[in-house]
């Protein structure tokens, strides 16, 4: 999950209500090519992955109260019969069944379930860059969905952020506090690089402390759909 959301939610975890609901996530591939879907949560630590050909979907169930959760598309993958291999983007240690986060660049659908006031916190993040467009929408719950599907990010990516299969975020490339916001809350702000992403995907995280315009909530117990190439 983006560093920013982790910071926002860290102090809320102990307030998790006694009554909490698991969530169902349907992952749909509407890209014209095969995408290898991946998911992972940090607490509890869990994850998985699956090849999705064009038009295919995959439904997963995430434990109530899960935090540090993300779903992402992997591209350019090749795996053997034992599920070992590699991906051009989003690779998670060379395995089909992810147990942790993937390598940048990634477009991320992030979530933390049943948090403060029994709310789910959701976002789309470009902090790790952009590869494939995403729509992250509730299928129940009556709350709004979010979308970041603007492939001009790849086509117009600044030269210093360009990489095979996508566009990196500046923290990945430069690793400095200015871009990674590692000096604590409120210590960094927008940069020309973050504005490049924000202008093209206004609802998505563009830098780690971009919380006010990038974090959304749904009632606990909401189910979701994550669509690649919506």
From TrEMBL:
<comment type="function">
    <text>Taste-modifying protein; intensely sweet-tasting. It is 100000 times sweeter than sucrose on a molar basis.</text>
</comment>
<comment type="similarity">
    <text>Belongs to the thaumatin family.</text>
</comment>
<keyword id="KW-0968">Cytoplasmic vesicle</keyword>
<dbReference type="InterPro" id="IPR001938">
    <property type="entry name" value="Thaumatin"/>
</dbReference>
<dbReference type="InterPro" id="IPR017949">
    <property type="entry name" value="Thaumatin_CS"/>
</dbReference>
<keyword id="KW-0776">Taste-modifying protein</keyword>
<protein>
    <submittedName>
        <fullName>Uncharacterized protein</fullName>
    </submittedName>
</protein>
<feature type="signal peptide">
    <location>
        <begin position="1"/>
        <end position="22"/>
    </location>
</feature>
<keyword id="KW-1015">Disulfide bond</keyword>
<dbReference type="GO" id="GO:0031410">
    <property type="term" value="C:cytoplasmic vesicle"/>
</dbReference>
<dbReference type="Pfam" id="PF00314">
    <property type="entry name" value="Thaumatin"/>
</dbReference>
<keyword id="KW-0732">Signal</keyword>
């Amino acid at each position: 999950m983006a560093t920013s959301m982790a910071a926002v939610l860290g102090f809320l975890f102990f307030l998790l209500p006694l009554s909490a609901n698991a969530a169902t996530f349907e992952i749909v591939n509407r890209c014209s090519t095969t995408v290898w879907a991946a998911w992972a949560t940090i607490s509890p630590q869990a994850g998985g992955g699956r090849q999705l050909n064009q038009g295919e979907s995959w439904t997963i169930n995430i434990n109530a109260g899960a935090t540090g959760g993300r779903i992402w598309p992997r591209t350019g993958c090749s795996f053997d019969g034992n599920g070992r291999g590699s991906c051009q983007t989003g690779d998670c240690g060379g395995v089909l069944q992810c147990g942790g986060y993937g390598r940048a660049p990634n477009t991320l659908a992030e979530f933390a379930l049943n948090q403060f006031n029994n709310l789910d916190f959701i976002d789309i993040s470009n902090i790790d860059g952009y590869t494939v467009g995403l729509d992250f929408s509730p299928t129940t719950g009556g709350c709004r969905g979010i979308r970041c599907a603007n492939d001009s990010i790849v086509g117009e990516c600044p030269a210093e952020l360009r990489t095979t299969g996508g566009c990196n975020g500046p923290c990945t490339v430069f690793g400095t506090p200015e871009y990674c916001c590692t000096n604590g809350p409120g210590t960094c702000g927008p940069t020309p690089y973050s504005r490049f992403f924000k202008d093209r995907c206004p609802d998505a995280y563009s830098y780690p402390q971009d919380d006010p315009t990038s974090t959304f909530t749904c009632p606990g117990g909401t189910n979701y759909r994550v669509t690649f190439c919506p």
